[in-house]
Fold each of these.
Amino acid sequence: MQYNTHMAFRAKKCKIKVVIDLDYMAIIWLCALVFFVIVEAMTVQMLCIWFAASSLVSLVLALIGVPEWAQIVVFFLCTAVLLIFTRPIVKRFMNKPRERTNADRIIGMTAVVIQEINNDKAEGQVSVANQVWTARSTSGEIIPVDTKVEVRSIEGVKAIVEKQEQE
């Protein structure tokens, strides 16, 4: 049994009445399409976009009068084909290796203390990769000038360093 929903729109000035005859499956596919697009926009994981594309195909089939069972079969087949054949290609382009920024690059590098590091006084600077960074020690110990340290992490604009063991 097929139900038809009539939606009437009336232009205020022209007094033109336009009637759009929509099948209930077309409304379901349109709602599914909108839902999947919204979820994809919120997550940006490139998963729901394939369901949205399949919903669009099924919506077109509903509008031209294809039986409901065929619309559902096409939805699942189209989704499977898109997921299997196009998702790996898209993921390859999306998961390019991230270029490390200046802050990320100095982690693990050796630095030289150019101003005594004293966490209690909130003082200390290091020179690393031709840059001067505000520094704090991981252990809280005072590290004198000209000591070699290793950058362990970055917290905001501060390099968190640890004194290197003497060889």
Note: The longest strand covers residues 110-118.
Amino acid sequence: MASIMPKSLPIPLKYNADMNRIAIGADIGGSHITCQLYVLDTNKLVEGTRVRLPVDCHAEKDVILDAWKKALSYAAHGCDFSLLAGVGFAMPGPFDYPAAVAWFEGVQKYESLYGVNVRREILDHFNLPDEFPVRFLNDASCFAIGESFVGGASDMKRFLAITLGTGFGTTFINDHLPVAGEDGVPPDGFLYHIPYGESIADDNFSTRWFQKVYLEKTGKKLTGVKELVELAKTETTAQDIFKTFGKNMGAFLAPWLRDFRAEGLVIGGNISAAHSLFLNELKQEFEKASINVKVVISALQEDAALSGSASLCDNALYSRLISKNL
């Protein structure tokens, strides 16, 4: 994966007077970290400050942390960290988000960080005081928060955001905040573990489902969904698999959308790029269930996760988040 470095330009002067209203958003992926500056008052990412660095998720602790610290340093663009509003991380789990402690185990990534307090590592590296905001939230939740401010859901108060990729990420949003344990939402706020078919939702609405079904039908292995998209241009088997995916997902999501009284559904993640192959079937299932929601394919993708993670450095928003024990 190619690195992306910030442009060698100073931060625009118009931001200099209010550096304490600029935060760094960081999105932690399985093979990379992406960081960018974000203006809290305008809900906008600062152009020319994006950094993406490859990260070996199987490396030793110090190698991983050094890559993360380097990316943050580059994204700060030469700015004194202590002048910023803070750093927000969109972080996969298992992770103790309020305590900032990684509990990666049995997930084949970042397991060398098990038990590490990532906030402490960042504060010590940049010589920051304990009160400097370094905050963490589930990556799917950060994506949803970002969509609520600047994405296709910015005109909705209540919606469900999903990310389709190696896993099935879900976040219910009400007034910019994730919802858990109320309005029909599971206690942890997620749907990946909910039983569906012969297993759970995560097994049915992720890359491995496509690989499993295609292997069963053809005896051939897929490298990923992108390969199946190419096959679907000419192969009816591939087309039918996508249609089944859309039908199944629509049937699964419909009752959750109804109980939550959602205004819309936002779809992101790598598989969302193939939406033309499954969206009609998904909507048909909603119609059968008399579910009337706006369906939005995310145009922001990683921008939403970066925006949402940086938004954690808005003290008013974060106080509301903490009050909900999220």
Note: The chain has ten helices and 15 strands.
Amino acid sequence: MYKTYIMHYQPLVERYNFVINQLYSNEISNFEFITGYDREELNQSIIDKFYAQDRSLHKKCSAVSMRQGENYEYQEMTLPSISLNIKHIEAFKKTLEQVEEYSLLIEDDCRFLQNKIDIEEIILNAPEDMDVLVIGGAFDHNICNYISEHQGSKDSDTYRYLKAAHPSTNTTSSILYKKSSVNQILTHLIPFCLPIDWQLNHICNEAQLNVYHLYPYISTQGDFRSTVND
């Protein structure tokens, strides 16, 4: 029903061991690490293929994520951030090739809040119009505004599904994607000009994807120092 892809920076062995334990504790066995395009592997040709240093595009894409009253400021992306975006692109491309209908994309600091989470049950109980399901993140649910609330099926009232207004993400630590929505995501993701969470906000708005948040969340980020600005 789903396959899991883990965005991983290879030198961080501690994170690899951490996320492997998280996967095994939750009986997630169908997974693949995305390890290509580490920052050390990026040359100008690769960067130019994926990353658009376009100020007008940057301003347009930033608009969805900016809070009211926040002043726009152009910022170039760092190599770690570019690397992470490309890893997500690779995971999305693999999603289109897989048999499974859903893909779970997690980053290598994703920490599940309990053991033996049933991802398949979460999928089965999700609203039919769901394109994207945020199952956790670095922030509380109040990072987003919500349009509507949906209960799971009669067989399970463990979770609720909150349909988010745009901007609709809570970092990209752990998100379920329906395979049929990934083509639309890739169309707007190449080239990118923003870190993946802000770029995804723009994409979901442009493609008018239905983004839901699981309530309560089942995952958050581990206690690792962020490396995206290194």
Note: The CA atoms of residues 189 and 203 lie 7 Å apart.
